Amino acid sequence: MVEYQQAISPKKYELPIDNKNDCKMLHGFIYIQNIGRFEKAHPMQDAGFGSCTLIFGENGWGKSTVADILRSLTTNNPSIILGRKTLAGGPDQKAVLSIDTQQTVFRDGAWTGIKPRIAIYDSFFINENVFSGDIVSADHLKNQYGLVLGEEGVGRLKRIVALDDENRELNSVLRIAESELNIIIKTIAPPAMRLGDFLALGNRDDIDSVIASKDAQAQRVRRSKELKAAAEPQLLPIPTETQKFRELLNLEIDQISESALAAVRVHIAEHECTAPKSDTSLEGWLEAGTGFVNSGKCPFCGQFFTAHMLVDAYKDFFSDAYKSLSVTIKKTRETFAKYQNGDFRKVIEGLLEQNDKNFTYWREAGKLEPPDLGDARGVILLMEEAAVLLDVLFQDKQAHLTEAIDGKEAEASLSTWEKGRNVVGHINRLLNVYASRIKTLKDSIDPSDLPRLETELKVIQATKRRHELDVIALISRIDAIKARKEAIAKEKAATRKELDDYGRSITGKLGTSINAYLLRLNAGFKIDYKEPDYRGKEPAASYQILINNVPVPPRSPSETLDKPSFRNTLSTGDKSTLALALFLAKINADPALKDTIVVLDDAFTSLDNFRRQFTANEIRKLCGLAAQTIVLSHDKNFLRLLWEKVDQSSIKSIALQTGAPGITTLAPFDIKTATQARHVTERGEIEEFLEGEPHSPNYIRTRLRTVCEDFYRKGDPSLFHEAASLEEITRILNKAPTEHPYRGALDDLREINEYSRVDNHAAVEGNPFEETTGDELKGFCRKVISLTRGM
Fold this sequence. Notes:
Blueprint: H1 2-7, H2 10-13, E1 26-35, E2 38-43, E3 52-56, H3 63-75, H4 78-82, E4 94-99, E5 102-107, E6 110-112, E7 117-121, H5 123-129, H6 138-143, H7 145-149, H8 151-188, H9 195-199, H10 207-222, H11 224-229, H12 242-250, H13 258-270, H14 282-289, H15 309-317, H16 320-341, H17 343-365, H18 378-399, H19 408-444, H20 450-466, H21 469-504, H22 509-520, E8 525-529, E9 543-547, E10 550-552, H23 566-569, H24 572-588, E11 596-601, H25 609-625, E12 628-633, H26 636-645, E13 651-660, E14 663-668, H27 671-674, H28 682-690, H29 697-715, H30 726-735, H31 746-756, H32 774-787
Parallel strand pairs: 2-14, 3-12, 3-13, 7-11, 11-12
Antiparallel strand pairs: 1-2, 1-4, 4-5, 5-6, 8-9, 9-10, 13-14
């Protein structure tokens, strides 16, 4: 554990980070323990990986272990590592990798951290997809279905079988989930509600209030008889209109003559005395006395009237209008007395108390919130105060019935009364609105609505249940299952159609690409595709290898040695070439190549020099296309070849070395020192130009001459001196014996000499070779490459 913790310490084993883009990159191995060849492995300083990483390792020194660790990581398959436990090693297997700015760790039989996309070419890839030893098995042909129809071809039928299996499993899960949901529906929903109806119920933010409202409706219908007979709030008695009091106070009696009015007032003034403590005024006292004048005697002293003028004035003064007004004033004061005696208070308080009880009932039974009456009881004090103030005014009026009572004091008292009256009116308006709501509610109650309301209530309750979290999760699971089943059906139909279309295809894109690579690799064969073989559970590739247009089957019985087959018609190099062509076609057709780490482990095995050059060129291209390219090799010269071709700024070179017994170190590796000096051959530049590298056409045109000169000078130094030009070489060959090995190249060399001399001498007007065209130049390049093989 201590060793492991030290191994992942950034301070001790910090690796440099080379981010050429945002793709995931492997920056190096921090620690490896008990995996394959690595009992323990540590990186040395500056042993980080770059966008193009070259790893040198002797055979049996851990290159395949590195490939397997990366394969286990990208496929998240711990078994690959578990199966490669170091023999006689410790119990724990560990691997710590630096990917981007994070650590990816294999520990306790599992990977944690980033798992980048990695494509690996090694012996495992060959044995899995192309051949094993000299044998192409039925499993190889099934895997090679991808050779004929693309990588997805083999998997399409597998996909259909997998889709059928998945669909059967989903059916079982769906039945269980729908059964659970149906139980919920039967428990909460109306009997007539079906699954589809339940699922269609839309969510509502106010569902609780809607349920409460609908439940209240149902409760009201159940209590319809009681509700219809229930009392409603009572209005408060409206006090007398203020204007009537104002009119009474301002009233004067027009029927009284001016002479009678003057006589009575003078008489009262002459005999004015202190009025007794009584509600009766002096005028009232005189008015009452006139009722006793029935003869010529005075009802007060018994003397006979000597003159009737004053008596006549009394009778005229105390007319019917006077008497009527007197009665009205008296009754008005009696009204005020009721306010002052508490009668108004008792009535109002009784009504308010009864209304409070009614409010409580309708709040519970009808779900009707009562109106806000404010300080309703405050109106009692206001009206009692106004009654006291007005009674003072009307007492004065009662004493002087024929006089108008007005002024600021009167208006202030009347305003107080009007204010109280307005408060009562406001309260009554609120009560009227509330009473209207009660009447509407009563009118809406129909006992026959109860079944409908109960059904609606169940629907709303079902709506709430439909959108509760556990039901949402259950329905989401059902929806996901159904969506997946629908997707499976569509995918199966599409896959079946694609499979049929591929089956009818003779050549797929990948197959065409493989043949193109075989041609560029100078392979002496190509692949002829046939209709796929669907006879087994899984389809298999059906193709033939064409050698000189003669078809050779990839498989043959092991005991049949006297007939052409994959085993005996292809060399070891050809078989490796086929595998390499498959990988290159596959990886370069991958749209995600820019996000892929490409790993090649001894990709040139059994390849001749030309194919090694080709492989190096293809790896160089991958360095510019893939997120990262990692090459493992036991051949320093091949790594040197790559080092020559790849942009130096992107290369990191590492070697698997021994640091101490039982320890492997990943150390920086100086390819230049370990091999010959760096030199890019002119012939190699011509090959690169043919492969599409952007070399100057005029420059390549001049190299045609120098390559040929160098080749033939070294090929026969006894015939050509070390400075012989191509012109001299052609003249010498022209005089050489016809049996000389180079004599057959004379015509080609003359054409090359004429074509390439334009840049070595002054321009010749009208010379058709002056201009350099792409197709013509490539033709001469192929001719030079063909003449100088083995250089």
